[in-house]
Specification:
Order of helices and strands: HEHEHEHE
Strand order of the largest sheet: 1-4-2-3
Shape: globular
Structural class: alpha+beta
Number of strands: 4
Number of domains: 1
CATH architecture: 2-Layer Sandwich
Strand content: 15-25%
CATH topology: 60s Ribosomal Protein L30, Chain: A
Radius of gyration: 11 Å
CATH superfamily: Ribosomal protein L30/S12
CATH class: Alpha Beta
Helix content: 40-55%
Amino acid sequence: MTTEEIRKLLEEGKLIIGHNETVHALESGSAAKVLLAQNAPAAQRGVVEEYAQMQKTPVVALEVSNTALGTVCRKPFAISFIAVRQ
């Protein structure tokens, strides 16, 4: 997934940003896809991947850092986990 696609999803309001919010989206079944930053914390990454596997939700490992992902999402902080709404 490219940064342009992520920006488009952001403008459409289809992104859920953050670890806890991503886990909640997976638990409720409202996540169509999960995006992970290249340097997402390993412990949190494992939790998200486990929930995604249980819900059969695809996980995409991006080739950008969490600080770059924060910039793409126009936030002043690093973002490691994003869920895409269905």
